[in-house]
Amino acid sequence: MTKFCSQCGYENKNNAQYCKKCGNPFKTNNIGNTLNDKTNKSDNSKIIVIALIIIIIALAGIFVYSSGIFNTDDQQSAVNNAPQNQTAQPASTPTASTPSSSPTSMSILGGSFSTGSELSDKTYAEIYVGSQHAGEQVTVQIWYSRDGATLNNGNMVPAHVDSSGYISISSADAYSKFPDFATVNLYDSSGNKLLDTVSVSLSPTSGTQTF
Fold first, then answer.
1. Same domain, 61 and 129
2. CA-based angle 149:121:126, to the nearest 5?
């Protein structure tokens, strides 16, 4: 197949780019070459874009793997290590504190001992600890003696502080002699904790003696 030059009419081979006689370029071939160049450039661009997409996907995969977002072992471990049976607990309601019936601190501030005129009368003790302790429960032990000899067994007697701050204790028995010495031990309500102790010298006569 041949093609003719548009300028001089010379017959040229079909694949000729220029006229063999006058040198006129054939437009058809130039257009074809241009189209081929554009096609090649388009193909190259597509290849570059595809390559970039592949690179981005690969980088994203590496990031996800290294960060452990989809690490099922870690997720299972977190589930296994999670505290079990944790339920919301209602807030505790504060309760008003009530004063203890057993004092934690109490001192003997004074008092008195009294006996009747007869040796058959019991001995009475009034022990003052302060009105701030009114209503509190205590245990009292009183030892009586005469000329160094003990007159009683020193029983532990439960008692309470009256509204005036006094504790009233009477001896279990009457003594054959008036006591000349008394030791008062003040304990808490259980009788286990000694709060205070006082020793008092007495005149071995009847009547009331203060200390």
1. no
2. 80
